[in-house]
Amino acid sequence: MRIPVPLRHAYRLLNHGPTTLITTAHAGRRNVMAAAWVMPLDFNPPRFVAVIAADTFTRELLEASGQCAVMLPTTEQLDLTLAVGSCSGRDTDKFAAWNLTVDPGTQSEAPLLHGCAAWLECSLCREPELQQRYDLCVLDCHHAWVDDRLWADGCWRFPAAGPRTIHHSKGGLFHPTGDARQAGRPVGGA
Amino acid sequence: MRIPVPLRHAYRLLNHGPTTLITTAHAGRRNVMAAAWVMPLDFNPPRFVAVIAADTFTRELLEASGQCAVMLPTTEQLDLTLAVGSCSGRDTDKFAAWNLTVDPGTQSEAPLLHGCAAWLECSLCREPELQQRYDLCVLDCHHAWVDDRLWADGCWRFPAAGPRTIHHSKGGLFHPTGDARQAGRPVGGA
After folding, report:
1. pTM
2. From the first residue on, what is the mean pLDDT of each consecutive set of 10 residues in chain B (190 residues)?
3. Chain A closest-CA separation from residue B140 CA (Å)
4. Are B156 and B165 contacting, i.e. CB atoms less than 8 angstroms apart?
5. How far is A65 from chain B (nearest CA, A)?
6. Looking at the complex, does the CB of residue B17 fall below 8 Å from at least one CB of chain A?
7. Which of A100, B24, B106, B190 is 20–30 Å from A118 (CA)?
8. Which of A82, A167, A172 sits opposite B16 (nearest CB)?
């Protein structure tokens, strides 16, 4: 079940460096792409930064609408993640092509994909020079949700069996997120 | 054993979103800090972007020297990673405090820590506005190495037993990188 995450904890959804899916919509057209280069930029209010190439349809819709949704696909969506990262939404309605089920966005038309581990609704903090020079898009997060089966006490908790977030290596090779281990608190040295 | 990685593959060392350690040195002083918000920015030549807070000693040494080394700590370095991320190098010689063994850097004085999974020697691509406004530091990578036990055919390959790269969740809770899974190539839809 999709449950809200307090905004002060939203950075934790991306802190471990998972691969994402990004949806956008504008003037009756919509798209979804895969993006591995996304990370937190600030804690509270939560802000993220994503590399989105200038020639992508996602970038066009993001700049036109000023909105997007960032989702975390799971081990059950490996093929989908590779597929939507391997073609352009200019040529293909990816939602129809892969029969994707979505909920409408709450703050924009960018849809929320079913089956993901987390959902972040964001608006583009316009930085034309940063976008043009480095393809870096600064995203302010306004709503965050997580799959309640994967979250406990304000952090990820992945059951032994079941979906996990994924990390892209190269060419469709993904690493699921491993089981959490707590480091020992520093007791000396300093 | 530390073996070189071709620069065109260097982005793959960070593509899966692991936590890093960053070393810096200038005028006889040196430091090491933990940084989870580091990601690739471009493929070839490889370029990374890291969030390094303005008030850190690392930022001071990075801006003074224009150089740093980015390393990937492993599951065998959880306590160390938490520890060096929990105090300032202004107060503590962390290398002495935690008895760290290092190799000298090849292009700068920033030392290369023993026991890591990968090493990236970088220079700061100075972007004063980006640094001041967002704490974003653009890093050009000039040399890359990986632990040869963890790398095969140009990507990560973690044996069942043995060290793995790690992903920070919060407060010293880390997730090791899981075993790789290949997604199926898209065969329809598009």
Report:
1. 0.96
2. 97 98 97 98 97 97 98 97 91 93 97 98 97 98 98 96 96 97 70
3. 13
4. yes
5. 23
6. yes
7. B190
8. A167
